Amino acid sequence: MSYKDATLSPQERVQHLLAQMTTDEKIGQLVQPFGWKMFTKNEDGSITLTEAFQQDVREGRIGALYAALRADPWTEVTLETGLSPREGAEALNTIQQYTMEHSRLGIPIMFGEECSHGHMAIGATVYPVPLLAASTWNPELYERMCAAVALETRSQGGVATYSPVLDIVRDPRWGRTEETYGEDPYLAAQLAVSAVRGLQGESLAAPDRVIATLKHFAGYGASEGGRNGAPVHMGLRELHEIDLLPFRKAVEAGAASVMTAYNEIDGVPCTSNDYLLDEVLRKQWGFAGFVITDASAMNMLMQDHGHNVVETGEQATAISLSAGIDLEMSGYMFSRYLSAALEQGLVHMEQLDRAAGRVLDMKFKLGLFDRPYVNPQIAEQVIHSQAHIDLAREVAREGMILLKNDAELLPLPATASGRIAVIGPNANKPYNQLGDYTSPQPAGKIVTPLEGIRAHLAAAGQEERLLYAPGCRIKDGSLEGIPYALEVAAQADTIVLVLGGSSARDFGEGTIDLRTGQSLVHESEESDMESGEGIDRVDLTLAGAQLELFRQLHGLGKPIIIVYINGRPVVERYIDEQADAIIEAWYPGQEGGHALADILFGDVNPSGRLTLSVPRHVGQLPIYYNARATRGKRYLEMDLTPAYPFGYGLSYTRFQYSEPVIERATIDIASIAKPTTPAYADTLTEVSIQITNIGQRAGHEVVQLYITDVVASTTRPAKQLKGFHKIHLQPGETQTVTFPITAEHLEMLDRNLERMIEPGEFRLQLGSHSAEGKTILLTVKA
Hints:
Protein name: Glycoside hydrolase family 3 N-terminal domain-containing protein
Strand order of the largest sheet: 4-5-6-7-8-11
Family: Belongs to the glycosyl hydrolase 3 family.
InterPro entries: BXL, Fn3-like, GH, Glyco_hydro_3_AS, Glyco_hydro_3_C, Glyco_hydro_3_C_sf, Glyco_hydro_3_N, Glyco_hydro_3_N_sf
CATH class of one domain: Alpha Beta
Radius of gyration: 27 Å
Number of helices: 21
Keywords: Glycosidase, Hydrolase, Signal
GO molecular function, one term: hydrolase activity
């Protein structure tokens, strides 16, 4: 069989294989059921395949499996019933071996796994959520994190991950805000490229790389009212300039897969949108990978299922396949209805061959036909290695953001004798430190803020300085824990109050006695979850009794350091005004407690910067720094300035900016290459600025470049991020940062949505965040 000849190209092997496949076998390559339902675990850690799965394999009806190693309350896979890293690798080998030996043509399974912030499997390293990783403004660090995730995933046999999430957030009430990089397309594009490089590397066939799946295509973060999967009202200009930019850049970087979004855009569901999936993705961008649906998204096309654009399953599969869908995630539409759709003439065999061929092409590129198995010993060695634990801590401490530091309360003195009261619902709840899409965790793996602070004090022989009380729960409005919290705080000199939200599903973690701080187990206890997929809010205030807890603690007159652990911004003006210091920690992952202690005690100078504008009031939404210049300026009650602007973050030192200098202040438009030529990426001029550390501590600064097209033929954003550099300076040190200016920095879309540059003035702003900086003009002459 020539398709087994590894000397042939993947395309040649695909054509030889398709020629031997039946219609049912081709349809089977488009089918990806729930992987964890295909087997049961035995007492010795091995697995037994279900009879149904074995039959489907023998009949060629399965091409991929979704999340075979996923463990969480939704899958009902627990620490006890799930698989260890070694067992997971052995299990996927068992599945793959049966498939290779019992399917007619020996076509391997493609295993797709969830890896938003670490492989969602038991034992894997749990990194900070993407929102925190983006807040590092360090693409190189994020690439290392993605490479580590790829290694852990591939070592067990997973070959595709459903990340990165490239949705641009327009309303942070949306529960999936934590999974994104924030509100800016340029920053998201840089991180998207890092994710693709980190996950895919130089070759998908490498034993430490996996497919990157760009999602959700497209507009998913701009849904009506911040509601998950709600309609999106957006013109093509905004779609291309904002939401599609990160996808285009990731495709140019070589991304191998794209996932469609649940939402519709202007009445057309993304799952059946041929403009997006064929015209833009394939024809304009030259995408050569495969397109996968989100879970059960094709079902939503049918009458009474959501979008209601077709009546039957046959019609739903037909419009999806015709638009460009190649693989169905965890649905049953292709397996049930595609054969009949072919018989009815709703789709044609050429379209089925195209989709099946794309999936098979990726299997050949992954090397699955030639090397279908993994070494369980390697999985045991690399998963949750010390190097990966250290990396999780590094990312967490680079992404935490110091929002306020009155009277330089922070960092706390390392050798002081004063007592510290750690209080709050997120002070010692392990699962509340993690984002959604997290597997069950063994006791002691997740370092909470309380544990991180305790470890830091213990290392100095000062553990007796530490006090603790939970105070309240995340969503519960009960005030019963506040008296005990006040009693504890009264004994302290400084209060660290850890508030925020939770994306923790019901892991059976139990709860905490608010009056004593002791752990309890109540199976019926309501979940803390107020963020995550499908958990959207009408407000951005703190839930439950958290604000009241702060008010009463504030009444003690003691310094209060607020630490927010959460998946979306918190809008609490009273806390903003009255707290002495505020740290935004997002969901910092398993090493978050250590990272927080590193920052609180000054071992690490905070360098995180916001990737979202934090409003002063939810009524300001949508609020983002790159709004159109024509937008209304204020409400009756307040203007549109945020509480904390995009790009903002403080340091324990201070940085001084010189006046910027531009190499050439005037450019002849005739000298600018066309967008379709390689020369379009050439440097037209350079702008430079000197930054000096005028403080007493070494630290990182994120130097940011924003560009404003002063006058244009279509309305333009007030400013747009077009460059950034994260630099490290010793006290008194000066560094010159230079930004090359290319045609892409100055481009816009004309009325036909073609990329072009208009003559005129461009204002270049260089500074520490979007709301301030030094400016200089660049002129493009006709």
